[in-house]
Amino acid sequence: MRYLSIALAIAGSAAAHPLSSRGTVTSFPAGASWDILLSKGDAIGNVKQQVAEQNFQVIDLDLFDTDAATISDLKATKQVICYFSAGSREDWRPDAGDFKDGDTGKGLDGWQGESWVNVKSENVRDIMKKRIRMAAENGCSAVDPDNVDGFVSQDGFGYDKSAYVDYVKFLAQEASANNLAIGLKNAEDLIPDVVDVMAFAINEQCHEYSECDLYKPFTEQNKAVFNIEY
């Protein structure tokens, strides 16, 4: 298991800020401390020993690789964000066979076995509904849907940005219906259109690419921006 501690980059101080709930949905205020399991290796069963007593408030884990019992144990001291790819089909996932012809486009550069999905497909949306429901049933506090800006990477469908704004808002609606918070993963071009329905953001390498200022709409609403620098 490769486990990497991440320092907060934009969300204010790395000191602990209290998490709160709006009804049954967790909020993630600017400054909340976090960590992320980037690669499980062969030791996902040890995640509780690795992180349960660590001094941070939020942990981001893979939805499919983390069982409900582990999530329940971790929630004694943390809020658990559950990761899945909402914008791609990964051929190793247990529901990969649910995608139909026409649901997938070009492959993701550098990621073998992974293809962009058609964000307008009702079947794709049904698959994502099931994933969000699974996150709720497993006890996740929030979801981290990745790869939601395929238009930037020319995913093979030729849709403009509005299709992806609509898709992210669909995901947010489904998360809300299941009493889950939801975050925006990267997808900086979508921020002005979706920040109001997101509880937090997760960014990869905004320091390297000088993009951190793009996340001000989140911190201005006291929403956490969790940063990863590789």
Automatic annotation (TrEMBL):
Residues 34-230 form the Glycoside-hydrolase family GH114 TIM-barrel domain. GO terms for molecular function: alpha-galactosidase activity. It comes from the Eukaryota. Its EC number is 3.2.1.22. InterPro entries: Aldolase_TIM (IPR013785), GH (IPR017853), GH114_TIM-barrel (IPR004352). Residues 1-16 form the signal peptide. Keywords: Hydrolase, Signal. It catalyses: Hydrolysis of terminal, non-reducing alpha-D-galactose residues in alpha-D-galactosides, including galactose oligosaccharides, galactomannans and galactolipids. This is alpha-galactosidase. It comes from Lophiotrema nucula.
